[in-house]
Amino acid sequence: MEKNRPCYGIYSFYSDHKSVISEFLDSVRDADEIILCDTGSTDGSSDVIKKFISRNPGTNIKVVSVSISPWRYDDIRNIGLSLISRNIDLCICLDIGEILVPGWKSILDDYYNPEIARYEYYVKVRRPDSESIVTESRIHRNRGCFWKHPVYEELIMDAPGNVRMIPRLMITRMVSEPKHDIIRLLQRYIKEHPSSWIPLWRIAEAYLEKGSLMEAHIFADKALLLCDCEKSKPYALKARICLAEGLYEDALHYLDHAILYKNDFHLCVEKAKILSKLGHHMEAYVIMKEAMKKLPDNAPHSFGWNREFDEFMEKEKILGLEEISGGQV
Question: Domain ends where: 174, 196, 219?
Answer without folding.
Answer: 174
